[in-house]
Specification:
By secondary structure, this protein is mostly helical. The chain contains six helices and three strands; from the N terminus they run H-H-H-E-H-E-E-H-H. The N and C termini lie close together (about 5 Å).
């Protein structure tokens, strides 16, 4: 059931993108969007991603609010670094260990870090759960500590929203087969 729901969601999403690209909702655009979406999902299927744990909506909302705040704050900080009359900021690549169990949640963490102005993930060590992040401003110990605090807070928010220890169980071959059915 879950697999069919995901397929229907993918079709709806692709048709929505198609309609946005054409800029007009019409019978012809919806029909052609369904055709293109069906062809894409049949000819170019995405690999199955094992999903464990449970989604916690309130924790997810808190995560979204924190990320929105970080994006706003980082945008202001990067803008100030661009217009300030001092020399360019010192930048460096910092190693961040993450205790995230799921590859899907790790990918979400990397995307959030990449979206944040002033940071860019340059390498992911998936086996050791290390992320190497280029940070724009590391000119003071305070800036470095702020980055590590934000990374630790992001990790905790992601765990609270998706990977609570009390609900976590690794995917097994049987559970993946059940998800496919």
């Amino acid at each position: 059931m879950r697999r069919w729901a995901l397929r229907v969601w993918m079709l709806v999403w692709l048709v929505g993108v198609w309609l946005l690209l054409w800029g007009e909702v019409s019978v012809a655009n919806v029909a052609s969007g369904l055709t293109v979406a069906a062809l894409i999902t049949l000819l170019l299927p995405l690999p199955a991603v094992p999903v464990q744990g449970r989604l916690h909506p309130l924790s997810l909302i808190w995560l979204a609010l924190n990320v929105a705040w970080w994006l706003t704050l980082s945008s202001v900080q990067v803008a100030w670094l661009a217009i300030r009359p001092e020399r360019p900021p010192l930048s460096a690549v910092l190693r961040v260990p993450l205790a995230l169990k799921s590859d899907l949640v790790l990918a979400l963490a990397v995307n959030i870090m990449n979206l944040t102005p002033g940071t860019l993930v340059v390498e992911i060590d998936q086996a050791n759960r290390l992320v190497y992040v280029h940070v724009l401003d590391v000119g003071s110990r305070r800036s470095v500590d702020r980055f590590y605090r934000q990374a630790a807070q992001l990790e905790q928010l992601l765990i609270a929203a998706f990977e609570r220890d009390s609900e976590w169980r690794p995917a097994t071959a049987e559970s993946e087969e059940a998800d496919r059915a």
